[in-house]
Amino acid sequence: MKKIYTTFQEAVKEIRDHSTVMVGGFGLVGIPENLILGIVESGAKHLTVISNNCGVDDWGLGLLLENKQIDKMIGSYVGENKEFERQVLAGELEVELTPQGSLAEKIRAGGAGIPAFYTPAGVGTPIAEGKEIREFDGREYVLEEALTADVSLVRAARADRFGNLVYNKTARNFNPEIAAAGKVTIAEVEELVDPGELDGDHIHTPGIYVQGLVEGQQEKRIERLTVRQEA
Question: What is the pTM of this model?
Answer without folding.
Answer: 0.94
